[in-house]
Amino acid sequence: MAQPVLYLAPHPHNFQNAKVLIALEYGRSELGAVEIRGPAAGDTLSQLATSRLPALETDSRLCLQGARAVAHYLAPGRMRGSSTKDSASIQQWVNLADSEIVQPACTWAFPELGLMKHNSKAAERAQLDLKRILRLLDAHLRLRTYLVGEGVTLADIAVSCSLLLPYKHV
């Protein structure tokens, strides 16, 4: 394989793809060319469930699965943290996005996209959970431009992409 291959999830509203594509855009100068495609029969990664996508296969046969790992690999070093403290803070925000934003964001937005049956109680709970997270973000960003440090990091990408569905569809 001449260049890395990035396999994206097939659904057009997949926010996990967005995380990876943004990291790729920032890291492209360090990485060089990357082929982007969906999974297809015969590909090394074709047996992966779509829940494991996006995935990346490099020319050295490294195979990474999942948005967090792929985005981490594709992003330039400065976006992963310039110190141990910054790196840990970035991971804290990425974890918050994955553990506390994604589920309520999907619960609220998926019915609007026809991906899930509407459940009023679940939607109400999701809205409350997201409002709590947005208050936390608002308080943290009141005197800052970025979640960690003085530039865009994987923390900003993870949190903003996790909020894409409710911002775009509800």
TrEMBL record:
- GO BP term, example: translational elongation
User: PROSITE patterns under this entry?
Assistant: GST_CTER (PS50405)
The UniProt entry, under SUPFAM superfamilies, shows: GST C-terminal domain-like
Its protein name is GST C-terminal domain-containing protein
Which intervals hold domain GST C-terminal? 83-170
Q: Which organism is it from?
A: Chiloscyllium punctatum
Q: Which GO terms describe its cellular component?
A: cytoplasm; nucleus
Which superkingdom is the protein from? Eukaryota
